[in-house]
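From the shared-data thread, chain only:
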Amino acid sequence: MGRIPRCVATIGLVGATAVLAPAASVPAPTGTVSAGAATPGPGYWLESRDGGVFAFGDAPFLGSATQQCTLECFGFGATGDANGYWVVDYYPAYSPHVTNLYGFGDAADVSVANDQGGGATAVASTPSGHGGWILYGQHGAVVPFGDAKWYGDASMIHPGITSWPPYGSDIDYFSGIASTPDGGGYWLVGIDGGVFAYGDASFYGSMGGQPLNAPVAGIARTPDGHGYWLVSYDGGVFAFGDARFAGSMGGKTLNAIMIGIAADPGGAGYWTVAQDGGVFAFGDAPFLGSMANHNPPIQPVFGIAASG
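Structure, as tokens:
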């Protein structure tokens, strides 16, 4: 297996004990809802490798990047006000020294110089949605844009890529980034479950140094920023701080690896997404649809983000 990307977007623990049965994954439309402002109801977006975006619930479809993605679009993230989102081009084919974020809704297009020696794998937004942070997963570099400030990164801590059979021999170490509610800091997570806090982000614990059955794929914070969840490839979810464990797919048979997690803005649940587009809802987070078993099959899903 080649390089396996992670999404952000926008966090869980392997081997968690309680397991809730998610609502059944069902086919969903391919995102043809007309663009509009996000509404208060629950919703989420999924993003696929070719830049496709699929909207569910009250999340508005604002456009996709299937015409812009040149090789593979790995990262995905919503703006702070949930009225837009970015699709991250891992490595633009025409210039590997540039990182492009394709913006939709109130998210502006972004291009920054890439001197990190690897591709961009995740993005997190400032509260205003007028800026954010790009994570380069291979070395842990964080690059701010717009109104975002730099609070540090892990580029001097963990070098290169990692092998984790049977999941791959070319996996970027850093798999996700999540920003604090006030935009004064952020967390990074590595595939071994290590969590790194910067700025006003508090450290609430991690799986670093603990036995894991599978790599950690992403992180999501609680609405108040006093906790976070991690999710691993095998569906395990790990909760820290005031994040409440509401169930996971750990220990269950999956058709595809789990690739991302998003917190329900209500704070009492979360969604996880598998690479085949299957969505699993836990706690108070409602199941609003998925892309599993879609005909024709979609490209592998690499990201999920919650709307308002």
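The two ends are 36 Å apart (CA to CA).
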